[in-house]
Amino acid sequence: MTSLRLLPRVVHVAAVLVRYRIDDLIDEAHVMRPLRWLRALLPRPRRQIAALPRGARLRLALTELGPIWVKAGQVLSTRRDLIPADVADELVALQDQVPPFPGDVARVIVETSLGKPIGELYASFDETPLASASIAQVHAARLLPPSGSSAHLPPRAGEGNPERPAAAPPVPGREVVVKVLRPNVRKNIAHNLELLDALASLVERWHPQADKIRPRDMFNEVAKTLRNELNLQNEGANASLLRRNFENSNDLYVPEIFWSHTGEKVLTMERVHGIPADDVVALDKAGIDRRALAEKGVRLFYEQVFRDNFFHADAHPGNIWVDPTRTRDPRFIALDFGIMGSLPDEDQYWLAENFIAMFERNYRRIAELHLAAGWMPRHIRVDELEAAIRTVCEPYFTRPLSEISLAEVVAKLFSTARKFELTLQPQLILLQKTLLNVEGLGRQLDPEIDIWSVAQPVLKRIVTDRYSLRHALKEIRKRVPEWLRIAPMLPERIHSALDKLAEGNGPLQVGEHELQHLHMLAREIQRRILAATFAGALLVGAALILALAPRLGLWPPIILAIAGVLTFAAAWPWKRAKE
Fold first, then answer.
1. What is the per-residue pLDDT across 279-295, written as a single tens digit (0 to 9) for each?
2. What residues contact 91, with CB distance under 8 A and at least 6 apart?
């Protein structure tokens, strides 16, 4: 039944691709060339379509198919090293030149979402959109002056809760942009997701390596990302957090969000002016240092991913502008915060170490990290994996570093790793997509950029700070109150669980020998709890000394010595408890 229901959608996709004669692109794909004989079975295209270049036909086809397809085209548009230049030039238009919907419809959506007539919300609202994309379009507007003498400015970035700042009267007559969700976009995306869901089910059922590809998890990750993008209030929260992370930064500016004029289908944001990051001619005309800008872009990527664990995952040039007022020390301006990424702490660590090992050409370390992270089964031999990685990487390192594509190396490594039963990680989809975008943009700004030498010191510094003793003590200090709260309850809970097991009411059935062992274990745990309480108190003391040292005027070596003694003392009772 599901297949029959999806059949019209499959037919629609095929019909669109045929109507725009996307088969022309098969000529660029060697693997697909055997399918060219099918052209004889296809109808001749209409004259106006046949007259268009292949890139324009691909752009129109993706636009007609909907937001998911447009997103794929946006990613491709940044990779001029992977697709023909004429196709990339056309796909750039997908970043902000999707055909708009009528301005009067946008007005109705704003009024319905915010619950007020447009005249009570804005001093002016231009129904002609500034830009139109696959999910929403943007209109210029000006806010009304606040009424009454109690009006005040909105809180600055970083004040209050960044996830949902308290609404405040906006600045009188301030220029803003109003982002309005497209009508019926939810329905369109739901249909496409249904198609992808069916495809994931087929792959999961029939593909011999479905357990490694994890199609269901991949689909869930994509679906979650798209559904989040359909809530503009979620986008506003993302922008607020990113703005706080880069407050007073010389590298990135994030516009302010006006929460009093924001809802699920409407987002009101400070209006900014800039140059699209890929407009090389305009950047040169403005006197922007493109090399410095490209290096900043690489640094920003690693800072967002590994320092803040919150990164802009839709960083195509339509969403990344350059501040034209800063030439010597250029600064990016971020827009469109619907797709943001973050990683589990474990994955963040494994990725950082993998990047560093790659920069240092430490192939053994890369192999060990893949096994330790659980991305490959334990029975894989480290030396064989190391040899395979060396075979992939060494040819690249014979070239000048400026000619090495990090994204290409990573893609080849993944391809090789699949032969060693690599399990794909759905949570890394957005990171891989962002890496493609960032590298593509960096090479557009400066074709000679040495991405490796720029990234390596930044990543090393971030990793050193993140996994330092000071950071570890800070994290311990956060957790100790929770540990101390739970500790007194553990003996009672263990005793209760043992009673239930003895009565046969627990989830497990155990014999007398196992029960005696559990009672001994319970007494051991009680002794360890006392030791842990003492250890926790000492660790908190060490952390407090580090935190209060500047106020106490202590010299750094003295601070570290005291903290080290306390940390060693904290470990000693644990050792005694284990004995």
1. 899 999 999 999 899 88
2. 55, 58, 59, 62, 73, 74, 76, 77, 83
